[in-house]
Specification:
The protein has about 60 residues and is an all-beta fold. It has no helices and four strands.
């Protein structure tokens, strides 16, 4: 997932080898790797119904 905060671009990726999520921010010399903290219980699987007619772009 890519997103922007205060003009700074970020993306989030799961690193299977480490078993956790990281947020990455591009810098002038490469990428800054920021670990994502989880304060809640592990993720639970659930389904979400998608309405193809109601899709919208979120910037």
């Amino acid at each position: 997932m890519r997103f922007e905060v205060n003009g700074q671009m970020f993306f989030v990726n799961f690193v299977a080898e480490e078993g956790r999520w990281f947020c990455y921010a591009p810098t002038e010399t490469g990428l800054q790797k920021i670990p994502v903290s989880i304060d809640a219980s592990p993720f639970e699987a659930y389904t979400v119904e998608v309405d193809e007619q109601a899709k919208e772009v979120v910037n």
